[in-house]
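User: Please fill in residues for this 149-position structure.
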């Protein structure tokens, strides 16, 4: 009797099939994980800017007036945010407004391209809320709401 050496073609095909099934499940989950990390990173940066906005409101008695696509330099926003661009929009009352980040269309996870994350300051209470009209709820951190399911 001769001893068998190596693998049969069937055994190799089974291994390739198992790897294919695992990667078909793992790659989309990894993409969601990366998107969640990018949203969390942006929210963390926005929280730092939010602190500076509060200081500005206390010192000046009003929400800063930012041009579309511009941030006042003294708020500590990154000049070149790698994931997107900030927009500051005062609302009708003096101490309320929104801070938005629109994700870029390249160098960003495909699940987030050209979507917007918003934090909004309420006029009467001074509380901040995190929302997004177009980012799905599963990608947002706890405490953020989304109208997209």
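Assistant: Residues filled in for all 149 positions:
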């Amino acid at each position: 009797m001769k001893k068998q050496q190596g693998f049969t073609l069937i055994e190799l095909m089974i291994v390739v099939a198992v790897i294919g099934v695992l990667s078909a499940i793992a790659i989309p989950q990894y993409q969601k994980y990366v998107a969640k990390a990018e949203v969390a990173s942006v929210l963390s940066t926005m929280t730092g800017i939010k602190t500076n906005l509060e200081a500005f409101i206390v010192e000046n008695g009003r929400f800063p007036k930012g041009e579309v696509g511009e941030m006042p330099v003294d708020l500590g926003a990154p000049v070149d945010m790698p994931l997107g661009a900030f927009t500051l929009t005062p609302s009708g009352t003096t101490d309320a407004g929104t801070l938005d980040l629109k994700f870029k269309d390249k160098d960003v996870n495909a699940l987030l391209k050209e979507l917007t994350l918003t934090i909004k300051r309420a006029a009467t209470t001074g509380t901040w809320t995190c929302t997004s009209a177009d980012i799905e709820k599963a990608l947002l951190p706890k405490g953020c709401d989304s109208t997209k399911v």
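For context: The chain has one domain: 10-146.
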